[in-house]
Request: fold
Amino acid sequence: MAAVNMRGIVKDFGPVRTLFGIDLDIADGEFVVFVGPSGCGKSTLLRTIAGLEDISAGELKIGGVRVNELPPVKRGISMVFQSYALYPHMSVFENLAFGLKLAGKSKAEYTPAVEQVAKVLQIEALLQRRPKDLSGGQRQRVAIGRSIVQRPGVFLFDEPLSNLDAALRVQMRIEIARLRRELQTTMIYVTHDQVEAMTLADRIVVLRAGRIEQVGTPNELYHQPANQFVAGFLGSPSMNFLTGTLAALDGQGATIALPDGQRLQVAVDASGASLGDAVTLGVRPEHITLCDAGNVLQAMAVTTEHLGDTSVLYLEASGAEVPIAARIPPLQQIVPWDRCSLCFDPKNGHLFRADGLSFRRLYPTIV
Ligand SMILES: Nc1ncnc2c1ncn2[C@@H]1O[C@H](COP(=O)(O)OP(=O)(O)O)[C@@H](O)[C@H]1O
Ligand SMILES: [Mg+2]
Reply:
């Protein structure tokens, strides 16, 4: 087990800067997930921790020791990749034992270690099979097992479930959560799948273009996003954004005027702003209901997605660049181009400045 501390980590590929000074402390035993859009630097950051990429500037400590100059094998880490290259000519047992053999362990030493890991991952019955005789999920388990058997202080995962089909991904996500409870080892997990991030992480690190946008628990990020980017990145369907101007301010919060003159309330502290400022109102689909009293927004239905337990209604609304989404009860029949009245509680609203930063919410609901 080991903590990971990053100070001003910079990574340049030739003239191109990819990481712009990452400061992050990961506690011993913590499960931290890096999320962000493709190309934002998640893999590069993970690979600098692993020692697969040099660090251009800054300091990296693992277990309290500076490791900038140490090769991967001396860092006490183990990494699982998206493409789990198993040795095709070796059995599952041999694949699992390979690293320990290489490290000079005898058969008497590595056999119990391999068997124990196989048990944890429920692949005991597969030990004599070759990789080609395994399903995708079983192969990924072997790849994870190969990593666990080394007993590293820190596990690094780079999108380990991205190549699996949806059902298997859900199953493996549960497995990883269980594994984490059993091993109690520091884990750093990269994904672009925000559901994976929300369900697995103690803390999520949202990256964008080589910089950290926000670090926090899944609940903190969901309820108190620091800016519009984080607000839009976490949640599915994602938060709706309506641009308008600040029309009034009082103790209850702010009133926003949309381009067509409709007014909406949001319970935020906008005391630093001036009337007339351009702002963006944010509200999540799950916080919108169909009703015509209260904090009402008139919008025009475009289409409905029926998901079984709920439906998602898409509507054109003033100030919204793309149709907004509202989660509604499943049996609600809405015809396209119906005019709908939507409501949301001002306490559930978010408000962003023109530069994207969030105004402080007056009722930040932390579950
Ligand atoms: N070996 C490399 N040489 C040059 N540029 C690279 C190299 N590896 C990654 N990059 C660039 O660094 C940026 C971040 O890439 P990456 O860390 O793979 O993103 P992510 O994993 O978030 O999708 C991208 O613009 C990518 O093109
Ligand atoms: Mg990547």
